[in-house]
């Protein structure tokens, strides 16, 4: 195990303090310049209206504080030779992080056209929040970043995810006081209960209190200082407080706090790694309290700005039109004394760069922020070792997720030494039948462990916490720094992370367009305990709509799979765990489910994404089918096959085709999604003009949305979940939503031309069974024997 680096306090000399202040002033100048200037970047001539951008966009208020933290991180990283990553949490902090990346040279190395000289500075300024340029927040385009700075709340969870299984890494995390008001961030403070000082790196939270959000004060900044200190201690941290508005004294205090924090971290890690000291440590946290918009205009138009909410975005507006504002902007920019910070050619002078680390120690150049560079393929064993035997379709049953659990346990065991695979979930790993994992690892837990507890250990790699936000944030941070993972959740409650997955999808979409960002492992969801098997928990647990949400997103990034049995689930899992730069959603059941396909057939079917199950239908290939029964999802597949069996028994002359869909995006046109079928492919499965009765796992209108451009869409009738749920029997769930086999047979009779009159008695018999079902479950509390005991009869 790598020993933690430790170096005693190295208080900065007066010369070093002068260099720190020079670096900070340079970063502040560059941040302000990005917001305002189109040209004249070094102010070699008096500022004129034409030098100012026509639209002033960006956020100044948070930038001086972020620059201050970056400067001091540079110092300790260089002095201690640390491998470090920083998560920049405050929203729209782009000017600061871009400024520092340019100063240290990592930006010009990534984008050679933005050179570290006067021309490059001009380009840096002009491109910021400008058409064809870069966003106003920390984004994928920003070297050294793994965290989108637009939506707030996820920085600390991302930081802990990055530190997991990274024993030599320091992850600093700057948390804005506005961000600290969000629910995900509030829960993230508990992440220290899951950080193992032996196998994981360290997270250093830096809570930056500048007092205001866009227009209101922030809660934590207004708490009495002793109460805030008690709050952070209650979370299990040892706070170090730095505050003030005098740069010299705050520089000194910040340097001391950083040294103290890193000494404590090194001591914690040394004790755990060399002396075997266990028990949850109290990790340090720095509370930095500085004015919002520090060093900016103190007053504008008679109103206070620095230290108030007015500095949040653009402190001086209408600079082109207002001569006084133009004069005030020039005075502000010149107050940083750029002629001392940059040579006549625009290059930073040596004093400015004295604190900057070298090479990959620079925060903008760390490979941990470009995790694909560090990624290794997972050792996935042959699926045949875990496949279930299928002698005859639909006669044996297995729990698909339990079968998958065996595969995941093997992967977990085979990555024990390299430690780059984790499974996360909100308290449901065993409930979701993945408990085979506990044969390979335990659940990580740093608090007390009681004799009655099971499968808890300080070094486990299964992570359970009853916060989907934390699970998502940990996994995102883990993946973006070059590792692999799997997120299992109850289907209904994964909606809690709708907004988080939005941001991750946007990150991946943008990253894929940047040649310098290496592909990372995909974010893989397993949604189980799904809508059709939540009959015992009731309506609150019944919601299959996450798939709809995902399929609204960037088609080059999102994939959705509904494997109908255990072997298809294995095949899909093998695929998604090998994939890169996607968000994969896999919906599969944990209850006993019929085995339909052998492993070989499952592989072939999953490779197709959608296909005809010849053995299930009665169209023999010599004529067109009279009707197509489509299905997607395990329970809809069972109901379609039961309906096909009823049609074979009652209407033997009817030519029925059964089409199963595993990859939902196959239903889309090729031009709308890379996995989409061409029209000839689609028509070969579903025909151009025959009735299609489609049984779908989720909300039926999604199928219509995916297939609305198809020639035969007018002949498609979709059954699915229509928000009719309660606590009832499994089969009653499908009856309530008209997805049951008897209703599907009735749909066929209603929609095949000429069949309604000829098969009237069959339709009536189907309706009678549904009526009998209602009476039966109310008397017996169980499903009809012919349903409960059904298996594929042919």
TrEMBL record:
Domain Xylulose 5-phosphate/Fructose 6-phosphate phosphoketolase C-terminal: 590-792
Cofactor: thiamine diphosphate
EC annotation from Swiss-Prot or TrEMBL: 4.1.2.-
Source organism, top-level taxon: Bacteria
Broadest EC class assigned to this enzyme: lyase
Domain Xylulose 5-phosphate/Fructose 6-phosphate phosphoketolase N-terminal as annotated: residue spans: 13-373
Record InterPro entries: Phosphoketolase (IPR023962), THDP-binding (IPR029061), Transketo_C/PFOR_II (IPR009014), Xul5P/Fru6P_PKetolase (IPR005593), Xul5P/Fru6P_PKetolase_C (IPR018969), Xul5P/Fru6P_PKetolase_CS (IPR019790), Xul5P/Fru6P_PKetolase_N (IPR018970), Xul5P/Fru6P_PKetolase_ThDP_BS (IPR019789)
UniProt keywords, alphabetically: Lyase, Thiamine pyrophosphate
Pfam family, one: XFP_N
Family classification: Belongs to the XFP family.
Family matches, as NCBIfam families: PRK05261.1-2, PRK05261.1-4, PRK05261.1-6
Name of the protein described by the UniProt record: Probable phosphoketolase
